[in-house]
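Go through this chain for my students:
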Amino acid sequence: MQATNPTSTTWSPSSDQAAIVVSLELSRAVWLVTALLPGGSQKMSRHQVPGGDLAELLSRFAELQRKAHARTGQLARIVVIQEAGLDGFWIHRVLESEGIESHVVDPASIAVSRRRRRAKTDRIDGEALVRTLLAYKRGEPRVCAMVRVPTPDEEDQRCLCRELKTLVSERVRHVNRLRGLFFSQGIADYDPRRPDRRARLDELRTGDGRALPPHLKAVARRELEVIELLDRQIEAVKAERDALLAAAQTAEVPSKAVQMLLGLKGIGSGFAGALWSEGLFRHFDNRRQVAAYAGLAPTPWKSGKIDHEQGVSKAGNPRLRAILVEMAWLWLRHQPGSALARWYHDRVRLGGRLKKVTIVALARKLLVALWKYVTHGVVIEGAGLKVA
């Protein structure tokens, strides 16, 4: 998901006075439709639609258009806004296919009351979304951040890297659980990932010399079955990912970028696929947009004599941010002669907390450098390439 500042055509009251502004508050059970009809009235109408009932939603839109036509004598077009959330983008795509102008907004970018106890209901949120859309269409700067909706193919391709991360995390959880069970019996040298993991079960002895208890052995066998299943699934996903990267290298648009990423030391197929599918396939106008998309943009706090940094915003793609931090550590190992690695070591002398803070700054610099490298061909100073 990429948030962008409003750059759309300015809202013209003369040309768009017959527009119906609608916000959708989505939940599993009920969709709340808040609408502002043209014709001078400032009162918003609210209607409830059963969750997932698109036919009823479109019927409600048609009813709103009939009311607007009776009031103004003009055929009113509908402009819809909804928050990015668990419903994804399928509703947005359906609305666009019906010829309805649709916008998806980053909910964190909408200004809210700063009262200690802020009232929050679907009705209040729906009205706030309508006002936000009106301000956005008028061209007010930085009123909100609209989401760049990915295409279905883009959304589908990034599923591979996300599934791989989920499977690996699940395998780590089961491996650690089995190791913890054995450690509680005084067994510290058992590795559930070794090829002889099943044969060793009969040989294991507890710390006090007993054979492995039967129920614990049964639990261990079931855990090994889960681990082996996860191993097969991980290998299958890796094969699909490698095939996707190979296809991307032969495609016309992303071929150069993927090849350039894979050509750098320290970047394998896993990192290249995640970098491309999570962020670098998108268009960014400048380095600030790149850093903001990953949530690595700084957040200063300046007021009067107070001036300090609050750290990175963490308002962007959390997966891309985690990938970049991990890559930053590996970059120091595989690219020690690069200008980025020297920049890091020049600032880290004593270690400790400064080391962790600086690695996040390095992650931001690395992301910007990789973006410039794959999009503009700007060579990363001192970076080494893999030997063919």
